[in-house]
Specification:
Strand order of the largest sheet: 1-2-3
Oligomer: single chain
Helix content: 40-55%
Order of helices and strands: HHHHHEEHEH
Number of helices: 7
Largest sheet: 3 strands, mixed
Structural class: mainly alpha
Radius of gyration: 32 Å
Length: 202
């Protein structure tokens, strides 16, 4: 590209007054052509930085604009995803807002809140929370999403000021195990004894 630029610079010289092939002039035009070529390449990179997905090294400027600090060792893709999530984040304080915010990071999530025990509103077996638990909520995400640092950081920053948020991964695995244990318990304590009694009655 620099050769093309040098030729173009040579055509801009006034006719007769300069020798386009002169040693000193060619050296000067070569230096200017190299600098101009570098500037044009930088211009292309800056033009690409208009979108986070093609920003390359300029992703740091996007992060500065949205006051984001990438996690240590974050990949380019994760940094771009965090910027795009910040761009799409219009604000809010509701449960659907935080679920949508997690989805911007590609994480399907549910939210679980905790309440103080109140007589007449508790059922047998309900957990009893006290202390700061009524001001804490948990975002549950699939085990496959562990550990979504960028999502956690953004949601922690956006949470209501009077609350704390904790993150749980793999609740679906625990629920699946619990269901299997319940089935096993039911089989051992109800199905098998009933079958044995039925055999004895024959």
């Amino acid at each position: 590209m620099s050769d093309v630029l040098i030729e173009q610079l040579q055509t801009l010289l006034p006719p007769v007054s300069y020798d386009p092939e002169g040693k000193v002039l060619v050296a000067q035009l070569t230096a200017e052509g190299t600098v101009l070529g570098d500037a044009l390449e930088s211009l292309e990179a800056i033009e690409s930085a208009i979108f986070p997905s093609t920003a390359g090294d300029y992703i740091a400027d996007w992060e500065r604009t949205y006051n984001l600090t990438p996690a240590v060792g974050a990949s380019q893709e994760e940094r771009v995803q965090a910027v795009e999530a910040a761009m799409a984040d219009l604000g809010g304080q509701s449960v659907p807002y935080f679920i949508r915010l997690a989805a911007l990071f590609g994480v399907p999530a549910t939210i679980e809140s905790f309440r103080e025990p109140v007589v007449g509103q508790l059922n047998a077996g309900d957990p009893i929370y006290s202390g700061d638990w009524p001001f804490t909520w948990r975002m549950n995400a699939p085990l496959s999403a562990f550990k979504a640092v960028a999502m956690e950081s953004r949601i922690t920053d956006r949470r209501p000021g009077n609350t704390d948020v904790v993150f749980g991964y793999g609740k679906e695995v625990v629920d699946g195990i619990t269901d299997k244990v319940d089935q096993l318990f039911n089989a051992i304590h109800y199905v098998v004894p009933a079958a044995v009694i039925g055999i004895e009655d024959l």
